[in-house]
Amino acid sequence: MSFRALLISQVDGKVTSGLTTMEESQLDAGEITIAVSHSSINYKDALAATGAGRIIRRFPCVGGIDLAGTVTSSSDERFSVGAQVLATSYDIGVAHHGGYAERARIPADWVVKLPAGLSCAEAMALGTAGFTAALAVVRMEHNGLTPASGKVIVSGATGGVGSIAISILAGLGYSVVALTGKVEETEFLKSIGAQEVMLRQSLDLAKIKPLGSETWAGAVDNLGGDVLSWMASTMKVGGALASIGLAASHSLNTTVMPFILRGVSLLGIDSVNCAMPQRSEVWRRLGSDMKPRSLADMTRHISFDQLPDAFAAYVEGKARGRVVVDIAG
Ligand SMILES: NC(=O)c1ccc[n+]([C@@H]2O[C@H](COP(=O)([O-])OP(=O)(O)OC[C@H]3O[C@@H](n4cnc5c(N)ncnc54)[C@H](OP(=O)(O)O)[C@@H]3O)[C@@H](O)[C@H]2O)c1
C-alpha cells in the first residue's frame, strides 16, 4: 500500500524535506502498524525538517516525533487491530520513520493506548509539548510543590510547552506568571490561565545576583541561558525549577547559592527517555485532572499540504500555542 509522507533527506551535507509517496515495505521494523490520523509540530520537528538543528540521526527519515491513530496490524498481544493509540519521542521522527505519514510502524514498547478523556486530535494537540509540560508539573509536585507554595513562573510562555504548562497549572489551582517576549500576546496568555504576564525585555539579565529576591515556588523553563540563571537566583526556599528547553541557549551560568542556601531543586525534564510506567501515568492524567481547559483555544489545525511551510515560525521563535497536523484529512 502506498501513502503520503514528509521525508527528511540529506543531500551534499544539506538537509531538505518535502512531501512524497512511500510504500509500507519502506517502513522501519516494529510490531505495530498504525493508520496515522493526526500528528503535531514541536520545536524539535521544525529544527529537524529545516536542518536548523542536528536532530535527525538517520537519513532519510520521515519527520514527526508525535503520532496518533488506529492500529491496522499488530503482532503484540497488548494492542489489537482497531485500537486507538499514540506515540511520542523514543527514536520516532529522528532515527525511525515518524508521524508525518499516513502509515507508521513502530515497536510495541513505544506505544501508549489512547487514554480515556482524549481523542486522537486532542492527544496530538498535547503531543510531546503537552506530555513534557505535564511531566514537569508531576516532577514539581513530587518535589512538594502545591498551589499553597506560591507563584509558579513559566518561560517561553506562548510556545507549545509553555502555553500548555500555563493551562495545566491554572487548572490545578496554581497562581501562574507567564514570561514572554511577545507583548501582543498578553491577552492570549491571560485567557489560558496566566494571572500575570511579565515581559522578558523588562528583566535586567546582565545583572543576575547569586541570590535575588525570593519570588517563585515553582518554575518551568523552556529557554535555558540567562533566563534559567535568573530563575534559579529568584526561587523561594525549597522551590522546584524544571529545566525543559534551550530555545534561547544551551548554557547555564549560575552559582551553587540557590541550591545550598535555599534548598532549590533543579529538575531535569527528559520526555524522550521517560520510562513507560510514568509515561502512561502522565498521559492518564492528561486525559483527566491535568487536561488543559484551554486546549482547544490554543490549538490550530493544518492540513498535510500546509505542513512544509509551517516550520519556519518555530525556528524564528514566533510559534504560538499548538499546531495539529490533520494527516488523514
Ligand atoms: N526536555 C524535553 O524532553 C523537551 C520536550 C519538548 C520540548 N523541549 C524543548 O522545550 C523548548 C520549547 O519547546 P516548544 O515545543 O514549546 O517550542 P515552541 O513552540 O517553538 O516555543 C518556544 C517559545 O520560546 C520562546 N523563544 C523562542 N526562541 C527564543 C529565543 N531565541 N530567545 C528567547 N525566547 C525564545 C518563544 O516564546 P515567548 O516569546 O512567549 O517567550 C517561543 O514561542 C524547546 O527548546 C524544545 O526543544 C524539550
General description of the model:
- This protein is of the alpha/beta class.
- It folds into two domains: 2-114 and 298-326, Medium-chain alcohol dehydrogenases, catalytic domain (Quinone Oxidoreductase, Chain A, domain 1); 127-268, Rossmann fold (3-Layer(aba) Sandwich).
- 24% of the residues lie in helices and 28% in strands.
- The chain has eight helices and 16 strands.
- Strands 3, 5, 6, 7, 8, 15 and 16 form a seven-stranded mixed sheet that branches. The protein has a six-stranded parallel sheet with strand order 11-10-9-12-13-14, with helices on both faces.
- Helix 5 (225-233) links the parallel strand 12 (216-221) and strand 13.
- Helix 2 (120-142) packs across helix 3 and helix 2 crosses helix 7 (276-286).
- The longest helix is centred in the middle third of the chain and has 23 residues, at 120-142.
- It is globular.
- It starts with a strand and ends with a strand.
State the gist of this model.
This protein is an alpha/beta fold and 329 residues long.
CATH architecture of the largest domain: Alpha-Beta Complex
Q: What order do the helices and strands follow?
A: EEEHEEEEEHEHEHEEHEHEHEHE
Can you tell me the CATH superfamily of the largest domain? Medium-chain alcohol dehydrogenases, catalytic domain
Q: Could you describe the largest sheet, including whether it forms a barrel?
A: 7 strands, mixed
| First-residue to last-residue Cα separation | 18 Å
Number of domains: 2
Query: Which ligands appear in the coordinates?
Result: NADP nicotinamide-adenine-dinucleotide phosphate
CATH class descriptor of the largest domain:
Alpha Beta
Rounded Rg = 20 Å
Overall pLDDT: 97
Strand content: 25-35%
